[in-house]
Amino acid sequence: GSALMTVLSIKLAGGTGPQAAAASPMFGHIISALGLIGAGVIIKEQFALHGITSAAILWSTGAIGMIVGTGYYLTAFAAAIFIVLGVLLLNRIASALEKQSNIYVYVISTEERAAIIIEIKKIIVELGIQFISSRLKKSRDGCEIEIAVTTSQNKNKAFIERVMQIPDVKEIAS
Description:
Layout lengths: L1 H12 L4 H6 L2 H16 L1 E3 L2 E3 L1 H18 L3 H27 L2 E9 L5 H12 L2 E10 L2 E10 L1 H12 L4 E5 L1
Antiparallel strand pairs: 1-2, 3-5, 3-6, 4-5
């Protein structure tokens, strides 16, 4: 798309090369549009942002298209290789950081159902969280379940979200 818009801007400027492309204001419009699309990809969820990598890849792909549109094919190829290698490297770094685990202790307040502990342990298994221990304590308002696990920050967040979806769970504290 951006390659086509770049070629079109060169044609509209009446030129046949990079000089005509530099004179065209179409580049600014392409860059603004890519930024807007990228902003739409980014989602803010509680305390985390998602989609930043996707937005950066969209913007980079558009930039490569603009480079192709101006006729600099070797530069576009080199940029594409550089971007792919960069994304792969950053993905490996993110995976290594994900493996770093912490110990989390949750206190889950529920209604009268002590059987909720079975549902919670099922979530732990599904998420691949390492279970350490659990303790069930009956209170006058229901039950308190204390669970200790070892997990990553992302799985911790997913665990809390899934537990809060269980009927009769009133509160979870960690």
